[in-house]
């Protein structure tokens, strides 16, 4: 699961308009702010992630692309979006086989259909972003301000 989040465009644009051109020092300052902000969002998301086995928490990663000056906080777990957004109760049926196989109390169970219960959302990425992004915008404004 990848969630792309952008800093409020109007605030970023206003901050970047304060400098006449992207000089080297300013670009480095902005890159540093974005890189540190991305790492901070990752730490916050790990702190907020629901912990059952710890797999979700361990899977939260971040990366920063200098060429685009953008950070990304992500996880590749196939169920991460369900934890973030939740899921309605639904039923699944066997499509290509005669039955579904799942495990209950360590023993295999076979059924033509299965009811999946509702899963309440336990957001971790969006709250982490919402908590850290005002500081990122503030620090970018400081970085681009003329001394």
Descriptive key words:
5 helices; 147 residues; 7 strands; alpha+beta; 2 domains; two-stranded antiparallel ribbon
**How many angstroms does the end-to-end distance come to?**
41 Å
Q: Which strand-content bin applies to the residues?
A: 15-25%
Portion of residues in helices?
A: 40-55%
Give the uncertain stretches in residue-range form: none
Radius of gyration (CA) equals 21 Å
Strand order of the largest sheet: 1-3-2
Give the mean pLDDT. 84
Shape assignment: elongated
Order of helices and strands: EHHHEEHEEEEH
From the helix content, strand content and strand pairing, which structural class follows? alpha+beta
Q: Please give the largest β-sheet.
A: 3 strands, antiparallel
Task: Give me the count of strands.
Answer: 7
Number of helices: 5
Number of discrete domains: 2
List the SSEs and their pairings.
Blueprint: E1 2-3, H1 9-17, H2 24-48, H3 55-59, E2 61-65, E3 70-74, H4 80-85, E4 90-93, E5 100-104, E6 107-111, E7 113-116, H5 125-144
Antiparallel strand pairs: 1-3, 2-3, 4-7, 5-6
Helix pairs in contact: 1-5, 2-5
Characterise this structure.
The protein folds into two domains: 2-85 and 121-144, no CATH class; 87-119, no CATH class. 44% of the residues lie in helices and 20% in strands. It contains five helices and seven strands. The strands form three sheets. Strands 1-3-2 form a three-stranded antiparallel beta sheet, with helices on one face. Strands 4-7 form a two-stranded antiparallel ribbon. A two-stranded antiparallel sheet has the order 5-6. The two termini are 41 Å apart.
């Amino acid at each position: 699961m990848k969630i792309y989040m952008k800093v409020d465009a109007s605030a970023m644009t206003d901050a970047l308009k304060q400098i006449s051109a992207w000089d080297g020092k300013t670009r480095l300052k902005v890159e540093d702010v974005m890189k540190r902000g991305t790492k901070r969002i990752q730490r916050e998301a790990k702190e907020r992630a629901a912990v059952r086995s710890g797999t979700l928490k361990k899977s939260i990663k971040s990366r920063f692309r200098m060429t685009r000056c953008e950070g990304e906080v992500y996880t590749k777990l196939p169920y991460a979006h369900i934890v973030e957004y939740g899921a309605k109760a639904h039923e699944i049926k066997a499509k290509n086989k005669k039955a579904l196989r799942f495990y209950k109390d360590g023993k295999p169970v076979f059924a033509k259909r299965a009811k999946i219960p509702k899963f309440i959302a336990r957001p971790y990425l969006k709250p982490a972003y919402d908590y850290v992004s005002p500081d990122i915008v503030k620090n970018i404004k400081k970085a681009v301000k003329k001394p």
